[in-house]
Structure formats: structure tokens, C-alpha cells
Write a structure and sequence with these properties.
Chains A, B, C, D: This is DNA replication protein DnaD. The structure is a homotetramer. By secondary structure, the first copy, chain A, is an alpha+beta fold. Helices cover about 60% and strands about 15% of the residues of chain A. Chains in contact: A-B, A-C, A-D, B-C, B-D, C-D. Chains A and B meet through strand 1, helix 2 and helix 3 of A and strand 1, helix 2 and helix 3 of B.
């Protein structure tokens, strides 16, 4: 119960819930992004398709396909780093946040325009 | 930008992300629940199918079907209140949280059992 | 326990924790701001000194003094609205967020300058 | 701005804001706990008095005193771990959460008693 109090909540960007459909994501893709976001926050920046499938209603091979599609459509980046002779990979949601921010800015600008014209 | 700082985040229960699949929800249903959770937090406890459809990749009639199914399967309650001669309705996610909590408790008990047997 | 899961967490701006001292607030003032922020989020935008004192280690008259000082120093606004013949008042933390944002922007600019000079 | 959206918020337990005064903490001590909580969440489980002083309105030696007092009064634990020949130390807020939970449970029990008597 203490864990529920101190580590039971994840602070997610409202803008994702508001605008994922507008930038062309469906519910399954948005949920996958929320799962990746949670893994990153908890210190695992490169969850495997198996780990994701353990929390979702699709299997590991479907998760792989979803991940590939998110990368191909430019919502998700795979970042490679080399530390000495050790390579590591991590997911970055930066491209997704950039798109959401653009949509947000655009709708604010249009909003202000309409208000000025009134 | 200030709004993003002070009202840009929604604190959601991690347990929902961890266990929605385990209790038989798919991604579209879980996203609908997150949308309803957000509406409730923002003071609108009975969002219409139209309002939900405006944020999701399904139309109002599909949203209606999803809502009906969530109610029928016992994840969502509709609470009716009478204030004088005015009736109002609101959604309650209480049944969902109860199920998630049961699953959580059960898995903790099993975990402890295994640890004791080791 | 369900309440702890669904309503136990408050998402607060990290920037407040990082920079309240820098903008000239002490710990008691920052805690009072956090309390006001929480009341606003929960739908009570004008908590009384008594309500605040009920959660803090100072009494109602000390809370009044703190509130007055926060207003005088330009961290807190009192907004008056008239709805028909009914006046209502609410606190706005807008001036505080503006200051925090200025400090944040300034420190980022200086940071970039230093990086460019290197 | 993207960082503000994805990493600008910290989800803190409301119970801390509601009941720190009740368990005998003042505002400065509660703010120090919030700072430690934030450091732990960000992966630094043993912030130095210097690091804390950098975010607070007291200097490093005052921070040391506050930390010592929180430990002595049983709100804060220092946990020592040995990994091979390397010792590491970290703060645990477990004792604090336990106290807050006790206070919360007690007040709920009393509440229910009063309701039953009515």
C-alpha cells in the first residue's frame, strides 16, 4: 500500500491523450507508447517486444510489428550509443513529442486568429 | 507553456497500464478508460460519446458501443443522482479499480507464497 | 486503498522545487503555494487561512500574513469575478509561474552561451 | 518545452501535503523530504547536503542538521548496501510513509466509528 502511495502514479502528458488520434495514431499504438514511456521513466529505455507483450493484449511478434511501424512512420527513434566497446540501444519518444507540440502550437495559432477576427 | 507546466500532466495509476490486459481489456478499451478518467479529473464526470470520439480514432457510435460493453462487462458504472427535481448521471470507474486491486493482491499473495516455499 | 490509487497523487511542476529558493521564496512560502495549488486542482480556488492552517504548522493568523506577503511581493494574485450580482474571488498562481519560467529561460540561455563559447 | 511536457511534473503523495504537520514536521522539513523524494525518483538516492542546499533556502551545514534530525526522529533511514567490496548508501523514506499511513488509517477508523454512532 505504501508502494501505491509513493510509486503508484505515472505523470503522463495530457497532450498525448488529447491529440494522438489527430496525429494519426490508433489506440493500440498510443497504448504501446504509454508502455514505452513508463519503461523509460522506470529506467529501462529499451524494453523488448516480449516485455511489452507481457503487459499488452498482443503477442511479442505483433509488438515487434507495431514497434517497426512506429519507427518507420517517424514517431519513435532508436538511439545507439557506444561506451568504450559496449554498444547500447534505447528508444526515444522525441519525434512523437515534437509532432504533438507542432499540432498544439498550430491549433493555438488558429484559435488566436479566429479570436482576433471576431 | 505555463499551462503545460502547471496543468500538462495527468497522474494515472500504474496498475492500469500493468494489468489491463490481465483483466481482459484490450488497448482500445483501456484508452477509453483513460479518456474517461481524464474527463472525470477535469470535472466532467459524464462525457458524451461525441466528446470521447473527438479524442479517439473511433466515431461516436463506436464509442457508444464500447461504453455499453464496458458497463455490461462490469468495468464501468453509471451513477444516477437526484438533486431536487434535477437528475444527473456520472461514470464511476470504481468497479474497474476493484478488479485491478484484486488482481494486484492475488499476485502479491502468490509471490509471497513462492518466496516462503523457497 | 482505491482512493490512494486513483486520487492519491498530485502532479506538481518540478520547476517549483528546483527554483523556489532562486526566486526568493523560503520553505514555508513554497509549502503554502503547494497547498494552494492542491486546493485549486481539487476545485477550491480560494482556500481560507483557516483551511490552510489546518494542513500546516502555522495558525490562521500566520497564514493570513503569509498570504498577504505573497500577494504584496507579486507571487500570488487575487482574481475577482462577478457573475450576475454574485462576486467571487479566487487565487491565481500565474505570477509565480511566470517568474519561474523567466528564471528557467534565462538559465537555459546562459547555458547555451557558455556552450557556444567553449 | 518538450522536456516540460514529458518530464516537468513530479507525482507526489497527497497524503504528505495533508498530514506532515499532523505527524510533527514543519514546512522546512517537509520541503527537504520533497527534495529527497525527487532526487530518489530521478535516480540519485543519496543527495549530499550540498546538492540539497543548492535547491533550498538553507546552506549545506543547515541541511546536514536537518537530515540528522530527520534520521534521529525516525522519519528517514540511511540504508547501507555492499556490492562486492563497494559500499553504497541511500536514503529511504519508508519510515515516513509508514507514519503517514498509520495516521491516515487511524483517522479513517475514527471517521467510520463516528458515522456508525450517528
Amino acid at each position: 500500500m505504501i508502494e501505491m502511495m509513493t510509486d503508484g502514479a505515472l505523470a503522463i502528458p495530457k497532450l498525448l491523450l488529447d491529440s494522438y488520434a489527430e496525429i494519426g495514431l490508433d489506440e493500440a499504438q498510443c497504448m504501446m507508447i504509454l508502455q514505452i514511456f513508463k519503461y523509460i521513466k522506470e529506467g529501462n529505455a529499451f524494453p523488448t517486444p516480449n516485455e511489452l507483450a507481457g503487459k499488452m493484449s498482443c503477442d511479442a511478434s505483433q509488438c515487434s510489428n507495431h514497434l517497426r511501424e512506429l519507427v518507420q512512420r517517424g514517431f519513435l527513434d532508436i538511439v545507439q550509443e557506444k561506451d568504450g566497446s559496449v554498444y547500447s540501444e534505447s528508444y526515444s519518444l522525441e519525434p512523437l513529442w515534437n509532432r504533438l507540440m507542432s499540432v498544439h502550437m498550430l491549433s493555438r495559432t488558429q484559435h488566436q486568429k479566429i479570436e482576433q477576427e471576431d
